[in-house]
Amino acid sequence: MVHGRSSPGAERQARLKLQFASLYSGIVVGEWMPASLLAEQLLTRAEREGVPPGERVCVPAHFEFRGGGKRPHELRGLRTRSVDSG
To answer: Could you say which of 51, 72, 73, 74 is the most buried, measured as most Cβ atoms within 10 Å of its Cβ?
Structure first.
């Protein structure tokens, strides 16, 4: 698959907004990528920089998202992030 050329509804995609480029070295601004790949990159970066476990590594306002369809019925209403429990 070529990044950014698949059907927007097929998988969740994300792209970094220009105004936040300086906060995310190594992530190409304005290029659509699978959100799962972005998540891996952000987690790797957080581990490398010593971000404490449980801290959010993606600020949604810094990115645009598209595709992915709706959340499966069995997951709607659930708090599925590890930091959501409690």
So the answer is: 51
